[in-house]
Amino acid sequence: MPVDLKATLIDPADPTYKPLLDNLQGNIIKAHGRMHTASLFLRFTGTPAVVKKWISDFARQYVTSTSAQIEQAKKYRNGKDGGIFGNFFLTALGYQNSQLGIMPRDRQASFNAGMKNVRIQDRLGDPPVEQWESGFQQDIHALAFLADDNEARLKAACDTVTASLNGVATVLTKEHGVRWLNDKEEDIEPFGYRDGVSQPVFLKGSTESPGETRWDPSASLELVLVEDPNVPGRDCYGSFLVFRKLEQDVRKFNEQVSRLAQALGTTADLAGAYVVGRFKDGTPVTLSDKPGTIEPRQHIDFDYEQDTEGARCPFHAHIRKTNPRGDTGRLAQPGIPLEQERRHRIARRGQPYGNPNGGAAGLLFLCFQSDISLQFEFIQSSWANGIHFVKMNGGLDGVIGQGTQVPDGPLWCKTYGSLDETIGFDFSDVIKLKGGDYFFAPSVAFLQGLGTTGSAR
Ligand code: HEM
After folding, report:
1. Is the pLDDT of residue 68 over 90?
2. What is the DSSP string of 294-315?
3. Is the pLDDT of residue 255 over 80?
4. Nearest to 221 by CA among 30, 351, 456
5. CA of 160 to the centre of ligand 1 (A)
6. pLDDT tens sequence across 85-97
7. For residues 366 and 89, is the Cβ–Cβ distance under 8 A?
8. What is the pLDDT of residue 207?
9. In sequence order, which residues have a C-beta less than 8 Å from that of residue 212 and are 6 or more positions away?
10. In the predicted model, what is the mean pLDDT of residues 240-255?
11. Which of 200, 239, 406, 454 is least enclosed, having the fewest CB within 10 Å?
12. pLDDT 10s digits, 155-176
């Protein structure tokens, strides 16, 4: 019997989910957690038969199913080596170019068009493709993704994979990601803020425990999964992936934070928290004007019901824009059910690139979803770039907002929690898109079956 995709917090030990988890690529419903990653962006040059055989071989050797990922994580928790982890993703052009079967089309005009499409660029406020890094300007067909805690082993695997691509595909560009950690060994992004704190939770017993009071992070499988159209009726699912290389201007961010702090007569810590919505240690600014003052559980379990005027967490703060936690029904469009707003959520799986000690750095932003238009694109275009969301003249998302800012910049409170005195300040333009694309993560059965006669299709 097919799995009910409306199920939340599924138990991976429940045999009902075994076929699904055996055939679903890893990293979709749970992060792989490896220290180092390598992303090889490919353009196929071989005949369809050659390409299919190569994909099947790569899938058998490297692509990690969710079941295997869960087993590796158990080993890792017992102090053992989790081993290498792999994914394989296809663009719409990749499906077409090598006749790789039916494309996952349902509600997926965005996937079919790709991130370079002018209408999509316009919707997202992206810079023209000519300004992207040259590798990303070309037609991308696939992304081979590898991750490992052991950097030398990852490099060796990358070299082997690259050599095997002779006559099959060209590597257009190669991106290296690495986890950045703070002094408590928690993940941070290049501006120095804790990242990966708030995520939709799909599995029972995940470390991020579901909220009991204000915010429930649990999510149903349908938020990220769609049936793999090439293996129908066999509990074989896939997911849509958005990849964006976002360069972060760390110096400009810090300068703007200092200027904002000066203008407000407050600390850089609090000014930065107003921009992101959290202090560097993850403390939500809507709950406290100081870091380190609340229980870790509250880093996830909160909403903005006690902050409806944006006097503690500004409406334009990054985390309030990208997950308004009920602001839509409360303030923007009264009557919109919370569940409708929650349908826009994404599973973020990005990783920083660059070096914490200097040089170009940013985020290799990755997110999974079942509908790119309704999820990633909606968050970026309607919320982050929407200067009137959640409120008229609320302004651009200070971290990722693109487009025209409100005149004189959005408003910021001089005193935490009080609207008595506010100033306008345009905090924007701290990240730049260097390239990216839309992908589908097909089922493991489909990928492995590509090389055989009477394949999975
Ligand atoms: C370089 C670019 C970006 C930086 C530096 C950044 C930074 C952050 C930080 C520090 C957090 C707080 C940690 C957490 O709650 O997990 C966060 C949360 C989040 N970000 Fe971003 N982000 C970036 C790009 C994006 C993009 C492109 C999107 C989607 C369009 C996005 C969507 C989200 C969402 C949905 C959350 C969780 C909010 C919540 O549930 O409260 N971010 N980001």
Report:
1. yes
2. S-GGGGTS--STT-TT-SSS-T
3. yes
4. 30
5. 34
6. 999 999 999 999 9
7. no
8. 54
9. 301
10. 98
11. 454
12. 999 999 999 999 999 999 999 9
Angle, CA of 117, 246 and 128, to the nearest 5°? 35
Label the pairing between strands 347-348 and 358-369. Answer: antiparallel
Stronger pLDDT, 448 or 79, i.e. the higher one: 448
Q: How far apart are the C-alpha atoms of 58 and 40, rounded to whole Å? A: 13
The response to whether residue 195 sits with its C-beta less than 6 Å from ligand 1 reads yes
Q: Which two tokens stand for residue 411?
A: 């408003």
* Identity of the residue numbered 373: S
Average pLDDT, the chain: 95
Give, in degrees to the nearest 5, the angle at Cα 33 between 11 and 72. Answer: 60
Q: Decide: 32 in ligand 1 pocket, CB within 6 A.
A: no
Nearest to 127 by CA among 434, 345, 378: 434
Give me the mean pLDDT over the 389-406 stretch.
Answer: 96
Strands (DSSP E) along 114-201, which ranges?
142-148, 169-178, 180-181, 187-188
Our answer on whether the CB atom of 342 is closer than 6 Å to any ligand 1 atom is: no
- In which residue are the tokens 């059910």 written? 337
Q: Can you tell me whether residue 129 is helix, strand or coil? A: helix
Tokens 């996952």 found at: 104
Distances (CA, A) of 165 to 19, 43, 81, 172: 31, 10, 28, 12
Cα–Cα dist 414/264, whole Å:
5
Instruction: Report the candidate in 347, 189, 207 with the shortest Cα–Cα distance to residue 280.
Output: 189
User: What's the whole-number mean pLDDT along residues 70-78?
Assistant: 90
Residue 26 to residues 20, 52, 297, Cα–Cα distance (Å): 11, 21, 26
Best residue among 123, 179, 188, 198 to mutate for probing ligand 1, ranked by most atoms within 8 Å of CB: 198
Ligand 1 near 362 CB (within 6 A): yes
Give the mean model confidence (pLDDT) for residues 216-226.
97
Q: What is the pLDDT of residue 320?
A: 98
Local structure of residue 214 (DSSP, 8 states): S
Q: What is the DSSP letter of 160?
A: H
Burial (CB count within 10 angstroms: exposed 0-12, middle 13-18, buried 19+), residue 77: exposed
Give me the helices (H) in 86-150, please.
Answer: 92-97, 109-113, 118-124, 134-137
What's the pLDDT band for 205 if we cut at 50, 70, 90?
Answer: confident
Ligand 1 proximity of 191 Cβ (cutoff 6 Å): yes
